[in-house]
Amino acid sequence: MNIRKTTLLLLLLVAGVVTAQQKNITLEEIYDGTFRMQYLDRLHSMNNGKEYAVLNTDRNTGTKTLDVYSYKTGEKVNTLINSSEIDGLDYFIGYTLSADESKALLSTKLRSIYRRSSLGVYYVYDLDTKELVQVAEEAIQEPTFSPDASKVAYGRDNNIYIKDLSSGTTTQVTTDGAKNKVINGITDWVYEEEFAFVRAFDWNANGDKIAYIRFDESEVPEFSMDVFGNELYPSKDTFKYPKAGETNATVSLHIYDVASTETKAVDLSGFQNYYIPRLEWTPEANVLAVQTTNRKQNDINLLFVDGTSAEAKLILSDKDDAYVDVTDNLTFLEDNDFIWTSEKDGWNHIYLYDKNGKLKNQVTQGPWEVTSYYGYDPKSNRVFYQSSENGSINRGVYSIKVNGKGKEALAAEAGTNSANFSTDFTYFINSFSDAETPYVFTLNDAKDGDVVRKIKDNQALKDQFDDYVISEKEFFTLPVNGEELNAYMIKPKDFDPNKKYPVFMTQYSGPGSQSVANSWSAGNGYWFQMLAQEGYIIVCVDPRGTGLKGRDFKKMTQKELGKYEVEDQIAAAQALGERDYVDAERIGIWGWSYGGFMASNCIFQGADTFKMAIAVAPVTSWRFYDSIYTERYMTTPQENASGYDNNSPLSHVDKLEGKFLLVHGSADDNVHVQNSMRLIEALVQANKQFDWAIYPDKNHGIYGGNTRLHLYTKMTNFIKENL
């Protein structure tokens, strides 16, 4: 042991700051699984609302069982599926139950495509007869039962197919699908990434019609990246990727009649129809609900389409000067009245409309945000949701009558509460954490929130941290540029207010995001604790443009991504530098993705404020990023060239004075390594010295094997050497 460290430890023991058993977290412990968080397995609430199913694995035999448990007692009721009892199938990875819970779709040989999409070989297993039917010989995408479980629709080779489980026949619904040209019923890359869905087809309530979106991406520019691999020659991965201002896929809406095999195109020309980010059939079998929006994404139309005539009718138009978020919060009542969320009063709230689009009631209101919408219970006539009404860094679970009265706080303890409700809204499983408490899972009564039983906690992990030197995460607000910005600080455990400390700032700063939250933080949270005990003060500040503080606060960065957020981070660093215990000459900043974009801008534009910065997988010009995300906040480069260029790190490389580390994965299909390569070249031509690292064949997450350990070791060493 180092003599200086031994002396320091003895002094701390005398001072009563640490105990003899306590030690600092190490990177090896963070990434070798030393700190194991207990989570709940993914569960499926059964139709009766009193039971749930969980897929279990016997680690000794590899046997998979789909077991059913009682919500109230947690005890196993029965086993629906046992892989050892299925003739013709050795294993399966996942499952989906049919609406009537009589059959299950079992997935095997899954292969990831992009963030949310995958290909796999699927089987239908009849829970009563134990009969097993393979859906298709080939790998397929998004297989989905018809409502009566008699058929399965799926995507293959960019076309839609229907398997009739009784006759065994397969019908090809579309025939024009072709790679990098036309996709039917499955979203393209940019829809999957930015509108967050893959299955672009849906069965109606009677199972006699399928609505689907067709993507003609033949004119969309292609992006290619080298995959180095282990062979003598690298290969290329080429895919359609519309960058800001470039051509997007032309989308169209179609309705297929299963009996007649006829397809009708829906005429959307009279509506905002550049994007079709959502489609779903309403409870009325002949009424299709479709959401469409313009390219700027500031006018979302809710349309009802007649399933027979294919005629569309405008029901609701939600507009904003900046943009309107696409969500999954649309819920239909039995008479096709519907629930919708909107920021139209300045905060995200729940609204009730009749089936013609007339507002019946604003269900929630106040200077706080509805952060998750859980659903509507027709028996109690109540809406269930999560919100920030117990503080913008907290989350609580609530219910309220659809008329806006009788609100109940079901789980609103300071911290982060998140609910998973049973099908009939009898119970919910609440997950709770705060800055000091790892996740605790309880079963709660949905009427009043009373805890029925504790399911699982992470007391063992919390106890484990008694062996380590851990600092408190202190929440506060920082007055910056006329706003009170949410922030937190982690000081060294042996903090001495008479000393001066270097500050390492962490942030993401993207539109509508939140990094300052009263919740348990693993991963980077452990890293920050390690750095704090190395003598650094860790600070996080959520600047203007981030979320949970109202529409105006979030959307004021419109057309100027990287301007106000950078101003706020620089001003925050300067304000921190005025504190007696902060060494203003030793302030650093880092971030990943949008945070990397910010860290780059901050070290360049705040050269007199930041001594060092680390940027991982950064956007370096919004001209390089995808159309849907970028144009939502920036419009197109053709319309807003100055907004793109004035706030790009590429425009400020000549100002670099501090130490800068740039990191990227070469196979990043999201934020392309092109971003870093262009920044590297700009810095070289500006004759600026800096450090950089490229991780071969790693995507936006930069992980696999020892990759994360290597990356965080590199970043830690860079901090120690330069801050």
UniProtKB/TrEMBL annotation:
Keyword Transmembrane: no
Recorded coiled-coil stretches: none
Domain Dipeptidylpeptidase IV N-terminal, first and last residues per copy: 98-439
One GO MF term: dipeptidyl-peptidase activity
Family annotation (Gene3D superfamilies): alpha/beta hydrolase (3.40.50.1820), Dipeptidylpeptidase IV, N-terminal domain (2.140.10.30)
Signal peptide: 1-20
Domain Peptidase S9 prolyl oligopeptidase catalytic intervals: 528-723
One Pfam family in the UniProt entry: DPPIV_N
Biological process, per Gene Ontology: proteolysis
Top-rank lineage group of the source organism: Bacteria
Keywords per UniProt: Glycoprotein, Hydrolase, Protease, Signal
Protein name per Swiss-Prot or TrEMBL: Dipeptidyl-peptidase-4
